[in-house]
Structures are given as structure tokens and as C-alpha cells.
Fold this protein.
Amino acid sequence: MAINRNILTLDEFTIQEMRAFPLATGELAGLLRDIGLACKRVNVEVNKAGLVDILGDHGTTNIQGEEVKKLDIFANDQLVGVLRHGISCAGIGSEELDDIVIFDDETSNKSKYVCLFDPLDGSSNIDVNVSIGTIFSIYRRVSELGKPATKADFLQPGNKQVAAGYVVFGSSTMLVYATKRGVNGFTLDRQIGEYLMSHQNIQCPPAGKMYSVNHGNFFRYDQPVKEYITACQKKDKSNGGPYTQRYIGSMVSDVHRNLIKGGIFMYPGTIDKPGGKLRLLYECNPFAYIVEKAGGKATNGKINILDIVPTELHQRTPFFVGSINMMEELESYLFAASKDAAV
Ligand code: AHG
């Protein structure tokens, strides 16, 4: 098979991007490479997931005598391990861990960046072969370089992200990441073990035909959210419809699809859980950043997700993200309701 040398690898692309900044140190490119490497290892295990039942249950010992770990724990350990040994990250925060991990060694203390991630989002879908993914978010430290990172480095609003991305383990494995220069996607070529540029300069279509929400919670949503969902269902050709409902229950897959094809994803608060389910730092901020850099928008229903100043590592937020025109229509319902309440 002829190899097309016109296609950039992830490493080639990040180095090329770096050269546009004469003062760049290459740390960000190194960090993206490390995340990509950890995700290649996760990819191998995700692809074997169907065999776990015949090779041994989670928590038992496999035929090589190794403990079979839950995949989300495995993914977490890979990311922590690779980033700890790399030279570009001063510490991490993970959805799987109660607290941040500061690497605190001479090299790491000099690193400019900290990284937050959800190691395996949608992991409750693994048993049924549904696409899942890793989400990551990178911040420049606010603490003094040369000293250990601090919690303040992690509790920054999403608009301070330097880069954010995800890897979707689907029919193919794809790494998508965003910086202020735009959003690009790379598909893993399993034969050569490299991520190859497949989606250059991703732009989220301003409108789409899909809305993604858990309809099972419909009667527990606020009235304006119910009204917007009902409006989605009533759409016909005269107002941009008909819309289609698509909800995988694996946000990486749902938002990836909407990013490429246009659409809106919603995880609103409910009567019993007004803060919703999704985590601001590990899930919502990275996706809000990616979709915004691709021309879309994200809100918690009141303010832009990226403007929320976090107070806790694991805080949750209602989350609405997607194509700009669809988001503006949603906001016309949400904001009209808040104006009525204020009168
Ligand atoms: P988990 O990682 O526990 O499987 O959660 C997945 C997240 C997100 O990816 C998805 O959109 C949402 O939870 C689905 O939640 P519901 O089942 O409540 O709709």
C-alpha cells in the first residue's frame, strides 16, 4: 500500500503549529503527544473489552497473572503514569480521583501546564460496545514556576484553557483537540500507530437537525427546557426541521457527532439534581472550549460555561452545547423565562 506523505501526523502538526510562535518551548506539543500515547494504550484495552468476560472478570487475575482492572481505572492510571513521566505537566486532576495529584519533582515543577481529564467518559456503556472517550483540558499554571503546582492552577475558569480535546474510541479512534488557533481531528492509523490528520479546521455547522437529551428526565426539567424540547419536536420544514433525537448516553460520542454534523446536546438540571450530572472541570469546560473554537456555543442556562469560576474540583453544572443558531434559539427560551421571573 502506498503511504501518503501529504498527511500530517499529530506530532508533525503540533510541531508545525509551535513554529508559528518563536517563543514556544514545545511543552504543549509534548503534552499532547503524551496524552495521545496514553490514549493509544487505552485504545488497545478498550478494543479487548469484549474479551474480558471470557478472560476473567474485573478485579480478578488474567492469564498473565495481572489484575484485570476496570477500564476507567486503567485509563486513569495510564494518563497519570504517562504525564508523570513526561516533562510537560506539573500535576493532574481526574474525574476518577478525589483530589489533584501534584507531581512535585524537579522537572515537573518547572512545567508550565496542568491537565484535567475524564479518563473514560461513558464507561457505563462499555459492556454494550458503545463508543466511549477520554476528555482532557490543559491550563497554564498560575502558581510560581519551579515550585509545586497548587489547587489554584486547577480551579481556573474554562476561558483560561490553553487547549482541550477528546479521544473517541469508536468505529475508528479519533483524537480531536482545540487551541485558540482552531480545532483539528486526527484518526488513529492502527497499522502504524500514529494519529493522522483527518479533519482539518473543524467548523461546527451553525445549525443542524439533531438534538440530544435524556428524554427520560423530561418531566423533571425546568419549564423553559421542556418548552424548548417540545419546540424541537414540533419543527418542520418551515422552521428548519424536522429535528431528529439522538442520544447515545456517551457525551463524547454525542457531542462529537453534533460538532461534525451540527446539533445541540443538553444535560439540564432536574428537580432532584438542579446541578445536573456532568462535571464542569472534566467534561463541560473542555467541550465548551472545543465547540466554541469551532464556532458553536455553550451555557449552563444562565452564563457561558467558560465564564464559570470553579470553586470545587468535582462541581457539576447543567450543560447545553452546540451549533450557534440552535444555542441562540435555546437561549431565547431560557432567557425569556429568567426575564419573566425578574419582573
Ligand atoms: P458515565 O461515564 O458514568 O457512563 O456517564 C456518562 C455521562 C455522559 O457521557 C453522558 O452524556 C451522560 O453521563 C449520560 O447520563 P444519563 O444516563 O443520565 O442520560
